[in-house]
Amino acid sequence: MLQRYTVTYPELVEILSDELKKNLGVDINLHQLQFLGSYTHMLSVLGENELFYTSMLANESFLSRAMLVSSIMEHAKSLNYAVKRAVPAKGSVTLYIPVDEITKFKVSPVELEFVTADNIVYSTFPISIIFDKEKSISVAYMVSITKELLKLPTFMGRVQTATGTKFSVGIQIPVSQSYKFLHTYILTETDVENYNVPTIVIPLSMYLPSTVIESMFLGDVEVYSSGVKCTQYSYLFEIPKSDYGFTLGVDVDSLTLRLSNGVFGRAQKAGSVITSLISVTLGSKGNIDANSLSLKTTLIDDYTGGVLVTTTLHSALINGEDGETPNSIRLNTIRSLRGQDRLVSYDDFRVTILYSSSLNSLL
């Protein structure tokens, strides 16, 4: 059993002096007032740290006072509130490539970016195009994250360009208003041993500038385990035994993925390649008028090495929606509890008592 000793301040100075002499081999005389100042400063710093963490714990434990995004999201999830995610504006554009003076061209898979005059970006999955006028070949494919090929509609026609009307090949390409990036992680033995829950933290600053992170909403998050798509769940215990699943934790500058481990869902294996496709979007601020996009990506002809001229036409893309802010999540979670007839605040109890017919009969 540990015994408790009381040491006076002068005794503490003497003990420290002796220890310093033993370790340094020289006699060091600690001036009590000087040591008192350092000692007092050290206590004040420890006290401030203790106060900070105690205060943070007290605040983050309650939804009404929580400041961290991760805390607010966890409170909302635990109270069964479905947070509204941002919806990127989506649609299709028609990309025209004039072929009056071209007999054939080929474009290897390349991700296309279309931009407006005020730099709103719409992006695509990689696109591959093959055109051969003599063989009457005009095909275009979009390559998904799982390497599946989706054939895109193509047609021949005339289009008005900056230099006149041109006979062109047209390609209808699906686009969305988002910045996309891929994060790849290979699971190690340590990640999966003893039924560990494989956990992957993705710092957004690795892929996006701070200005983009601050101004955008999190969009779609897709996770693949060695090419097999994982299903997102709110909690690990919800993942069926036969399913590859994951949960998503959201913070201001990072995302945390927790994967199925064999106890919850299907077990991951060491060496599995976890690919995460993440997008951030402007939401409703990414909605645009018709024909305001132009192709930013340079299309290179594989045959000649030359640059292909393009014209872009599209209808208005106005189906983008904003996601919830941390403060709106907090307020709407509390409102949803009141909507479920759950007593949360003093007013809830007061209103319920006043309008209770059984209690009114007693008044």
What does this structure look like?
The protein has 363 residues and is of the alpha+beta class. Helix content is 25%, strand content 32%. The protein contains eight helices and 16 strands. A seven-stranded mixed β-sheet has the order 8-14-10-11-12-13-9. Strands 5-4-3-2-15 form a five-stranded antiparallel β-sheet, with no helix packed on it. The longest helix is centred in the N-terminal third of the chain and has 29 residues, at 32-60. The termini are far apart. Residues 357-363 have low confidence and may be disordered.
Please summarize what this structure is:
By secondary structure, the chain is an alpha+beta fold.
Sheet with the most strands?
7 strands, mixed
Q: Which blocks of ≥5 consecutive residues have pLDDT under 50?
A: 357-363
List how many beta strands DSSP finds. Answer: 16
The number of helical runs is 8
- The whole-angstrom Rg is 31 Å
Principal-axis shape equals elongated
Strands in their spatial order, largest beta sheet: 8-14-10-11-12-13-9
Distance between the termini: 62 Å
Q: What is the N-to-C succession of helices and strands?
A: HHHEEEEEEEEHEHEEEEEEEHHH
> Which strand-content bin applies to the residues?
25-35%
Helicity range of the residues?
25-40%
- Helix-strand makeup class: alpha+beta
Average pLDDT reading:
84
